[in-house]
Structures are given as structure tokens and as C-alpha cells.
Specification:
Layout: E1 5-8, E2 29-32, H1 46-52, H2 68-85, H3 90-114, E3 122-125, H4 131-137, E4 140-144, H5 155-168, E5 172-175, H6 182-191, E6 195-197, H7 210-227
Parallel strand pairs: 1-2, 3-4, 3-5, 5-6
Length: 232
């Protein structure tokens, strides 16, 4: 409550803060990191989100940070805004932001290079967390196991999922380490499509390089899943 600056993801991620008296403080500077992101609309969870948020327009997917390229843009934006707010240290804010953003840009390039030989770029994700990364890498998300996080699909929805996966013939099904892999494993057994684990970096160590390590591992997993072999 005593903070001078609040950095928010935006794109509806912090909906729980709406109406908070804390956000109405006149002396609080709010930075919306995703202001520089070209939003992707939610797709598989669209019906649920329309019911819950009928007043919204666009229904954007909030998971922009899962793309290193978008994370780099967001980092530079945060640095620029901090430089405006606390101008005494503007050079340091900008330099630090640029240093980290350059690391993320390099990571985005490495991800793309690892998948150059991938032919089947159709995938199934556990949640709608990887749409921005999929856009960067020209991947097609053909199905989502759990559009509503924490709410398992019904038996009928599972039957529909199995049929969709069989019809679309994706290269892989991806679980997430923050959740049980039981459903992904079940779908894999029913369809013959292998499953792997991709991390949306929604949790982890409080360490500046934690995100980078997660994304490097994601790059290895994606290469294993889509190319079936590791480059030396």
C-alpha cells in the first residue's frame, strides 16, 4: 500500500484489482506492461470469458510474457516509464531495461532457430498460455485441454477433444508443470500423440534469470517435440 509505482501485466490479468481503493490513489503511478503488445483474442475460452466479462471488448489473451519477443518489448516499456517517473535515475532504468531486453531478443532468435526444420507445427496446449509464443514461431494451436484453468473438461468435452486431436494430427500435446499431467497423458494414450511439458513461466524462483532458464528449457522441449531430435 505504500508503493510509489505499480507494474501490471494488463490485458485483463489483474481483473481482481478492479475497484480497489489502492488503485485510486492519486500519488500511485501505474505502468501497464502490455500497452506495447498487439493483443491476441482468446479463442477456446471465448464463451466462458464472454459470460464472465460481458462488458469487455476484444477479450484479449493476457499471456503475452510467454513470448520472449513480447517480454522484451514489455521490458523496454517498463524501463521507459520508470525513467519518466523517476527521472533522476532515468539513464540507469533505460540501460538495465535494454540489457535485459537484449537477452530476451536473443532468446527469441534462438527459439526460432531451433524450430527451423519443423514441418508439423500443429500443437495442443494445456491452457491458452502459449498463443503469443505460437504466433512468434508460426505454430498452430489446434486445441486447448483446459480453457478454464483449474476446471477439468467434462467427459463430453474430453470426447470432443480426442476427436479434434485425431482429426488435426498435431505433433504434440503439452502439459504445464504447475498442473497435473493426468489429462495430457490420457489424451496422449487415446490419440497416440506424444505429450511433453512446457512451462508458461507463471511461477518460479525470484531470480532475474529464472525466466530465461525456463524459456531455454522450453526451446529444448519444443525442438524435441516438433523435430524429434536435438541439434548437436
Amino acid at each position: 500500500e505504500s508503493a510509489d509505482v505499480l507494474v501490471m501485466n494488463g490485458l485483463g490479468m489483474e481483473r481482481f484489482l478492479e475497484g480497489s481503493p489502492y488503485l485510486k490513489r492519486r500519488d500511485l503511478e501505474v505502468i501497464i506492461a502490455s500497452e506495447v503488445v498487439e493483443p491476441i483474442p482468446l479463442e477456446f475460452g471465448r464463451e466462458r470469458h464472454e459470460q464472465a466479462c460481458a462488458e469487455d471488448e476484444g477479450l484479449p489473451n493476457p499471456h503475452a510474457w510467454v513470448s520472449p519477443a513480447e517480454a522484451a518489448r514489455m521490458t523496454r516499456h517498463i524501463g521507459a516509464r520508470l525513467a519518466e517517473i523517476d527521472s533522476e535515475y532515468k539513464a540507469k532504468y533505460r540501460a538495465n531495461a535494454e540489457k535485459y531486453a537484449a537477452t530476451l531478443d536473443s532468446l527469441a532468435v534462438r527459439l526460432a532457430e531451433r524450430l527451423k526444420g519443423a514441418r508439423n507445427r500443429r500443437i495442443v496446449t494445456f491452457h491458452e498460455a502459449f498463443d503469443y509464443l505460437a504466433r512468434d514461431l508460426n505454430l498452430q494451436v489446434v486445441a486447448v485441454v483446459e480453457p478454464d484453468p483449474g476446471v477439468e473438461p467434462s467427459a463430453g468435452k474430453m470426447t470432443e477433444l480426442i476427436a479434434r486431436i485425431r482429426d488435426s494430427k498435431p505433433a504434440a500435446i503439452f502439459a504445464e508443470p504447475q498442473y497435473s499431467d493426468r489429462l495430457a497423458r490420457m489424451l496422449s494414450e487415446e490419440t497416440g500423440v506424444p505429450f511433453y511439458v512446457l512451462d508458461p513461466a507463471s511461477s518460479g524462483a525470484d531470480d532475474p534469470l529464472s525466466y530465461v532458464r525456463v524459456m531455454i528449457n522450453n526451446a529444448i522441449v519444443l525442438q524435441q517435440a516438433l523435430i524429434k531430435e536435438l541439434n548437436p
